[in-house]
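*** Backbone structure tokens ***
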Amino acid sequence: MNIILFGPPGVGKGTQANRLKEKYNLLHLSTGEALRAEVKNQTELGIKAKEAMDKGELVSDDIVVGIVVNAIGNVGDAKGVMLDGFPRNISQAITLDKVMEEKNLKIDYVVSLEADRDIILKRLSGRRSCEKCGKDYNIFFSPPKVEGTCDECDGKIIGRSDDTEQVHLDRLKVYENQTEPLKKYYAEKGILCNIDGMGTVDEVFADISKELDSK
């Protein structure tokens, strides 16, 4: 079973990916890690990728897709691959389908975690942590009992410099511009599963599992 997992920043995609990997024995494929492995092993694609990177150029879609398909074809003991946020555009999706078809492989399901934008922004911009013990908080959903002070160690609660609403708005716009066309593309293929990502971790995982198990 080969799946693609989509979801906006802050929806909990990473948590769900870890659970899905364990339950279905999937290789959780990071395109960045796969790219670095090809470069390190000096494969044909790795050499081409390194040439582009050395010139300060973006690695072409053809090379990235080739590297992804190589990884899909070498899953070892895993029962499939989970692509996390890849492909990123229609061009990559079309190329991915073409190359996989040539190798008698296919994407079985595309799981899209859906979320309310206002809630996502609060999840992201409200993140805080204790600078002393590292305990995580959210000023909107799980604030400390005393404002600015950690419940566990009385350390100072701090935020990250990039946790601003504008930064996260920009990230969400990029995601929406890239992902909406992809969702339509996979919906037309009949393999898109839209999942409400606003429930608890257990609820969301149960909904994803129900969809995958029913196919």
The helical segments are 13-24, 31-40, 44-54, 61-72, 90-102, 117-125, 165-188, 201-214. The chain has eight helices and eight strands. The beta strands are 3-6, 26-29, 80-84, 109-114, 127-130, 136-138, 157-158, 192-196. The mean pLDDT is 88.
